[in-house]
Write a structure and sequence with these properties.
With 256 residues, the chain is of the alpha/beta class. The chain has a six-stranded mixed beta sheet, with helices on both faces. Strands 4-6-8-9 form a four-stranded mixed beta sheet. It is globular and about 60 Å long. The chain binds acetoacetyl-coenzyme A.
C-alpha cells in the first residue's frame, strides 16, 4: 500500500489527506481507491463522528490524473468505470468537511462537491477546466455544480473552463466559508470538533435529508424530512438535547 492518502484520527475525527504533491494531488485510480477505502473505514468505525478531507497548501486536487486518461479509448473508459468509486463517496453517511487550499479543479472540484461543508483558504482556485483539454466534467461537475450554483454560473465555469477565486466561489454558494490562508486547516478541524459534540444520529439524518434535496421534488423532500425528524424522537439524543437545553447545561450525546 503506498501513501497517496495519509490518514490519522484526531479525537473522533477521521482525517484523510491527499498526498501526491508533485502532481498537485492529481487523482489517479489508485489514489481514488485508497481515498474511498479510507472514508469507508472511518464511516464504519463507531468511534469516528466525522471526517476531514484535505490536501496541501498548493492543491486540494488539480483534477483526475490526465496521464491515466490520455491514451485511453472509449472502451477503456467504459470498462474502467472509474466513477463507480465516486458513487461510494456519495454513500458515506457521516459528515465530511473539506479543507481546501490552492487548486480544486476538475475532479478536485467535483470531489470537493462530494463533501458536506467546505472551508476554503482565500488562496483556493476552483473550476471545471476539462473543456480546455477537449473533454467535459465526468464526476458530477455538470450536475452537482448546476444544482449548487445554478445554470448561469455552471455554464460559465463548465464552458469556459475558467478558474474562480475562493471569494467568488463563496458568493456563488460553492464553498461554505473562506478563511485566511494560514487558518484553513485549523478552521476545518474546528468545524469537525464542533460536529463531534452534536448527536451523531441527528447529523447523519440531517445530512441525508439535505442531500435528498438534490434528488427529489420539494413535496417529496419535505415529506422525507418530516419522517426523519419524527424518527429522531426515538433516540436518547433527542431527549438529552432537549432536557439539557431546559436544564441550561451542555448536552452529552451518546449516539443512541
Ligand atoms: N493530472 C496529471 N498531472 C497533473 C495534473 C493533472 N490533473 N495537474 C497538474 N499536474 C502535474 C503537471 O503535469 C506537473 O507535472 P510535471 O512537474 O511533471 O511537469 C505538476 O503537476 C505541476 O503542475 P504545473 O507545472 O502545470 O503547475 P502550474 O502551477 O504551472 O499550473 C495548474 C497549475 C493550473 C493546476 C495546471 O497544472 C493545470 O492546468 N492542471 C490540469 C487541471 C485540469 O485540467 N484538471 C482537470 C483534469 S480532467 C478531470 O478532472 C475529469 C473529471 O471530471 C474527473
Amino acid at each position: 500500500m503506498s501513501d497517496e492518502i495519509l490518514t490519522e484520527v484526531i479525537d473522533r475525527i477521521g482525517v484523510a489527506r491527499i498526498n501526491r504533491p508533485k502532481v498537485l494531488n492529481a487523482l489517479n485510480l489508485a489514489t481514488m481507491e485508497q481515498l474511498v477505502e479510507a472514508l469507508e473505514r472511518f464511516d464504519a468505525d463507531p468511534d469516528i463522528r466525522c471526517m476531514l478531507l484535505t490536501g496541501n497548501e498548493r492543491a486540494f486536487a488539480a483534477g483526475a490524473d490526465i496521464t491515466d486518461m490520455t491514451d485511453a479509448s472509449m472502451v477503456d473508459m467504459v470498462q474502467r468505470n472509474q466513477f463507480a468509486r465516486w458513487e461510494r463517496i456519495k454513500r458515506i453517511a457521516k459528515p465530511i468537511v473539506a479543507g481546501v487550499s490552492g487548486y480544486a479543479l476538475g475532479g478536485g472540484c467535483e470531489l470537493m462537491m462530494h463533501c458536506d461543508i467546505v472551508i476554503a483558504s482565500e488562496t483556493a482556485r476552483l473550476g471545471q477546466p476539462e473543456i480546455n483539454i477537449g473533454v467535459m466534467p465526468g464526476a458530477g461537475g455538470t450536475q452537482r455544480l448546476t444544482r449548487a450554483i445554478g445554470k448561469a454560473g455552471a455554464m460559465d465555469l463548465v464552458l469556459t473552463g475558467r478558474m474562480i477565486s475562493a471569494r467568488e466561489a463563496l458568493a456563488m454558494g460553492l464553498v461554505s466559508r473562506v478563511v485566511p490562508a494560514e487558518h484553513y486547516y485549523e478552521e476545518a478541524l474546528k468545524v469537525c470538533h464542533e460536529l463531534c459534540t452534536r448527536s451523531p444520529i441527528a447529523l447523519r439524518l440531517a445530512k441525508e435529508s439535505v442531500l435528498k434535496a438534490f434528488e427529489t421534488t420539494l413535496a417529496e423532500g419535505l415529506e422525507y424530512e418530516r419522517k426523519l425528524f419524527y424518527m429522531l424522537f426515538a433516540t436518547d439524543d433527542q431527549k438529552e438535547g432537549m432536557r439539557a437545553f431546559l436544564e441550561k447545561r451542555q448536552p452529552v450525546f451518546a449516539g443512541r
